[in-house]
Amino acid sequence: MNAHVTHDGLRSAGHTPPDTGALTAWREDLAAELEPLAHPARRIMMEAAVVASGGMWIAPGATNWGPHFAELSVGGVHASGNDLDEGIAAWIKAVLRAARAAAEVAA
């Protein structure tokens, strides 16, 4: 028997879908707060956001076998870079780019 997962089935089981509007606003607010910050404050704030949101933060390893780049995922947006600072900058850019595109579509 194959089980099919549907939105109605999840709702009836007590699983409500995420409020995508609230999540989008949270990501945009976080990106706007992070953008003007310098290196240490930006990293500290992003690390707190990763923990608070159940995200992912993988720093490049100190070994020569890897990982050789940083990865992070916060609020459903994934980004990577050569180091954590570049990964955070890429995450901010991705969130702000999506916000601008959504605003253009809505206009």
Structure commentary:
The chain has 107 residues and is α+β, with helices and mostly antiparallel strands. The protein has one domain. The chain is 55% helix and 12% strand. It has a three-stranded antiparallel sheet. Strand 2 and strand 3 form a beta hairpin. Helix 2 packs across helix 4. The radius of gyration is 17 Å and the shape is globular.
Brief sketch in words of this structure:
Residues 1-22 are annotated as: Disordered. Residues 1-10 have a biased composition (Basic and acidic residues). The chain has 107 residues and is of the alpha+beta class.
Give descriptors for this structure.
alpha+beta, 3-stranded antiparallel β-sheet
Order of helices and strands: HHHEEEH
Please state the average pLDDT score: 85
| Biggest β-sheet: strands ordered side by side in the sheet | 1-2-3
Report the principal-axis shape: globular
Structural class: alpha+beta
State the major sheet. Answer: 3 strands, antiparallel
Tally of strands: 3
Helix content, binned percent? 55-70%
| Gyration radius, rounded | 17 Å
> Helix count, per DSSP?
4
Total domain units: 1
How many angstroms does the end-to-end distance come to? 47 Å
- What percent of residues are in strands? 5-15%
Low-confidence blocks of residues = none
